[in-house]
Design a protein that fits this description.
This protein is mainly alpha-helical. Helix content is 80%, strand content 0%. α3 (31-43) runs parallel beside α5, α21 packs antiparallel against α22 (372-384) and α23 runs antiparallel to α24 (406-418). The two termini are 47 Å apart.
Length: 456
């Protein structure tokens, strides 16, 4: 273990793995070697192996913050946000784990849950800058710009001399188009830190808005030099260059903004203008078509988010039929969103419309075969209709997609037990109890399997 730890901390992860694996083999019940081994494997890109170590570590100590952190990050990297959320919700109270939980909620499209998690945490730790920053980001993503401004302003009052608190306040003021307060603050902060990327970039944005394009170009060029991979600074530099009659320079910056991931329709529109100024008419027309397509996609997404939020409120209030209607509108707006389809299936389940539920679940797994919750629910429906072979298939797909999905392991064990495949059922049940040793349903199923096996 000490050899492995030394190698890992000195940057030799590959060599560390060999020593740590030997340590785990010799004393499998010791926690620390598994934690370091999981980190080393993750660093080497061997995520599935790392997850095995995180899972084993959690079995050894279900309160291990390091193991929960490693496992939840790996799950999120694999796109398995539901399992990460389940794991983090049962974790000990900790600022880092709270931030991870809010991130998992956010990436799963559950922004109200992310906001509530962070708001509750801030009641306990009202001075936390990290929690404040995270909540402000969630509020911005919910288009609650004024709420974000109030939150950041409160943080500045609590931390009047903290530059990061003022940085957050400036960012949200710019997002809220509050240039009256943003401009003097931006100039003051840039004067105190003239090489700070954020302050250079935000001053450039504000100067563009005020049509002070020469000053904007200077600040944005410095920002790009500090961080050439931030597409928004290149986009804004492109705006300034276009206004200063430099279409070639604008074209270069706008194309780089798109290459770096800029997806706002306005980038395409500005690029089309630059191309037209350069006489590249055909390319300009192509960019305008992309601009119109992105505008339409954004409009559909806005409808989807709005309808899904309304549907969630109706569902929580027990109005399943209203939730179904609203979720259908959300899915119609974004038909490739597997998570929305799954949420619609839950509402359909409450109304008892099994046929429609099955159809929408099949649509969800066609979009994303690794959506473990949808696979598990399809297995449940198949089991209820007496199709144990199909149920087993879906449950196995669920646990393959999300190895920490306790309910799917229990469902698989129950299905195998009904087929009198007791050895396989016990193995599946052992996986469930390894994840949640106190799970009442799993403990009862173990008793039922033992009784059934004794009667054979």
């Amino acid at each position: 273990y000490l050899v492995g730890l030394s190698l890992y901390t000195s940057g030799h992860a590959e060599e560390a793995v060999t020593a740590l694996e030997k340590s785990v083999f010799l004393l499998p019940e010791v926690l620390k070697p598994r934690l370091i081994l999981g980190s080393a494997l993750e660093q080497l890109g061997r995520r599935k192996e790392a997850m095995i170590e995180w899972e084993a570590a959690i079995r050894l100590d279900h309160l291990s913050k390091e193991a929960i952190t490693g496992m939840s990050k790996a799950l999120m990297a694999d796109g398995d946000f539901p399992t990460a959320i389940t794991l983090l919700r049962s974790a000990p109270h900790d600022e880092n784990l709270t931030l991870l939980l809010s991130e998992a909620y956010g990436r799963a499209g559950m922004l109200p849950d992310a906001a509530k998690t962070l708001t509750d945490a801030l009641r306990v730790h009202p001075a936390s800058l990290r929690l404040t920053n995270a909540l402000a980001v969630v509020m911005v993503n919910q288009a609650r710009y004024q709420d974000a401004v109030h939150l950041a302003e409160k943080s500045v009052r609590v931390h009047p001399n903290n530059i990061d608190a003022q940085r957050l306040f400036l960012r949200v003021l710019v997002l809220n188009n509050d240039s009256t307060r943003a401009r003097p603050l931006a100039r003051k902060l840039l004067a105190s830190a003239p090489k700070d990327f954020d302050f250079l970039y935000l001053n450039g944005v504000l100067e563009n808005q005020a049509r002070e394009f020469t000053a904007a170009r200077s600040h944005l060029e410095q920002a790009v030099a500090l961080d050439p991979n931030y597409y928004n600074s290149r986009f804004n530099l492109g705006i300034a260059l276009a206004a200063l009659n430099d279409p070639a320079g604008a074209k270069e910056q706008l194309e780089k903004a798109i290459a770096l991931g800029g997806s706002e329709p306005e980038i395409r529109f500005k690029l089309a203008s630059a191309l037209r100024a350069l006489g590249e008419t055909q390319q300009a027309d192509e960019q305008l078509k992309l601009y119109q397509s992105q505008l339409q996609a954004n409009a559909h997404h806005a409808v989807s988010v709005n309808k899904a939020a309304q549907a969630a409120k109706e569902f929580d209030a027990g109005n399943a039929k209203n939730a179904v209607a609203l979720y259908r509108e959300a899915v119609d707006a974004e038909p490739e969103n597997a998570l929305l389809a799954f949420k619609l299936s839950l509402a359909l389940d409450k109304t008892g419309d099994t046929g429609a539920e099955r159809t929408i679940l099949e649509q969800a797994i066609k979009i994303n075969p690794n959506l473990a919750m949808a696979q598990n629910q399809l297995g449940y429906l198949a089991s209820r209709s007496g199709d144990s072979a199909s149920a087993e298939e879906h449950f196995r797909l669920a646990v393959a997609a999300a190895p920490d999905y306790t309910q799917a392991w229990i469902s698989l064990a129950a299905t195998l037990g009904m087929e009198s495949r007791f050895d396989e059922a016990q193995k599946a049940l052992a996986s469930a109890l390894g994840l949640d040793p106190q799970n009442g349903e799993a403990l009862q199923l173990r008793k039922d399997l033992i009784a059934a096996q004794a009667q054979r």
